[in-house]
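Continued from yesterday's entry.
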Amino acid sequence: MDTGLVIELWNKGILWDKMIGCIWVPLEKIHFSEQPNDGQWMQVDADLEIYNGEICGTRNPTGHVIHIEMHFEPVYGMFTKPFVHSFCDGFIIFLNHQQSINWTT
């Protein structure tokens, strides 16, 4: 199960690239918003912590910090009141129709 977002910071070289470090952010810490926020400074760590095959964090700070702004944007028009009301009304009509059907025959 995917429970977080891994952000990797790389230094691009001429012949090869070098990974500076990574940040692990739990998905529940990322907010839903239609507008960007101020972001936050996050410490970059060198290693991922893995427990039972799942990433659960990072360790060993590299001394680097990075400013990150992240948010989930709702699908356009998905959470507006007219959409929610029409969806709920349609679903109630569907449930009422399902209850009126005689399923025993």
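--- second protein ---
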Amino acid sequence: MPASISLPVNVAAQVRNMAKTRRLSSHRMLRELTENGIEAENASSKSFSSLPSFSATLPTQRKPSVSATNWAEWSLAIDAQDRA
């Protein structure tokens, strides 16, 4: 399906330079860039949708162990004694 588009001057210049480097017409270069962009977008959305949900990857919060709690209390008590 033929379509007419307007490109910013700098983008059109980049397309022409790429086409010249690859020895393609500007139309063919633009077509390849468009096809590659569509493929990349589809691949990106597929890889994004295959990721596990954010909530499934959150770590579960554990209660501190009794020994950790006792150590913290002891440490605070020692600090209080040192300051006195």
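The mean pLDDT is 77. The two ends are 86 Å apart (CA to CA). Will compare against the first tomorrow.
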